[in-house]
Specification:
Two copies of one chain form a homodimer. Helices cover about 40% and strands about 10% of the residues of chain A. Chain A is of the alpha/beta class. Chain A starts with 5 loop residues before the first helix and ends with a strand.
Chain lengths: ~200, ~200
């Protein structure tokens, strides 16, 4: 078999996925070859459509199929309380807990000087713009309980001091070291319930 | 987020891969969203091209980018000895050993009455046709050392009795580098059964 036949190409491409090594990628490629052609077509189409069909919400910076996203576009949700998260996946985790009926703001990361990520690399300015519009009464900081998440929460708390906005932080319920994306929903619900003043 | 937005669709499609659950699929989909659009495009193209670009060799039934496959098309290889394997992947494993310079024949499975797989479901007839052409002097049966692989080897050996073709089977025993203490008991049993004069 030549070094760049379609099988090798597919193996190499599938091995780009995080956590998928060469061997697993080869196994997936062989599996595709044994399926009906529609399987490959449907998977390829979904991958293409994913990148083309999702966009960043111009209000909360969440990634969704529409702008504004379903949460920002839902008039029944409380505009006075905004939950600030690191990643779009965290929105889904908090929604699954059913404990929050406000809006969100996605930072797309956390402050991490070691990785060269400062406040300007995050969606902090649009968050301040939302606060300046005056509707926001409380910000719930739901960044991860790790060094970067804590640093980001402290930075935001300092930044918002004197604006009159109540700043709280998710606290009890999420064990230290667990990323919010992977926390179980009752822990997320508890954390929301017990949020504390920063 | 609606239940069938592009993210959910991609997650569902990626979860069709064997060994990839819903959570891993979601993680891969989010990873794709964070990459440049070219990453999704290249992976999708490789998946599509894989199914369109690979074909079954009309001589040995191996899956390759060309027909005849590179092995069948290589005039330097011995046409007198044919290694019979269950899967195309087995060809790659034997090639990697560097110990074989003959041709191959891929059965695409093994006889398994419990799964309803009889001899007619395998590429046995084209193998017999190759034998009847008279060039084959030896068949090395390299089916798996399990119930189905053994049954398939026995079936082929019986079928080829009287044709004058030498029929051999890959030696099974303790794998090189395995300490006897840690070898599985059926490998030890085979090794004992097939012991050789030193």
């Amino acid at each position: 078999m030549s070094t760049d036949d379609p099988l090798r190409q597919a193996t190499r491409q599938l091995a780009r996925f995080p956590g998928i090594g060469e061997r697993t990628a080869a196994r997936l490629a062989w599996w595709l070859l044994r399926q009906a052609p529609e399987v490959s077509e449907e998977i390829a189409a979904a991958i293409l459509h994913l990148r083309q069909g999702m966009t960043e919400c111009s209000r909360c910076a969440n990634i969704a199929a529409a702008d504004p996203c379903p949460t920002c576009g839902d008039p029944s949700r409380d505009t006075g309380i905004v939950c600030v998260v690191e990643r779009p996946q965290d929105v889904a985790a908090i929604e699954a807990s059913g404990a929050f009926r406000g809006r969100y703001h996605v930072l797309h990361g956390a402050i991490s000087p070691l990785d060269g990520i400062g406040p300007d690399a995050l969606r902090i300015r649009p968050l301040l713009a939302r606060v300046e519009q005056g509707e926001v009464k409380e910000l719930v900081l739901a960044t991860d309980p790790d060094v970067e998440g804590d640093a980001t929460a402290l930075y935001l708390a300092a930044l918002l001091k004197g604006t009159g906005v109540r700043v709280t932080r998710l606290a009890h319920g999420i064990s230290v070291g667990t990323e919010i994306e992977y926390a179980d929903k009752s822990s997320v619900a508890r954390a929301m319930e017990h949020r504390r003043e920063v």
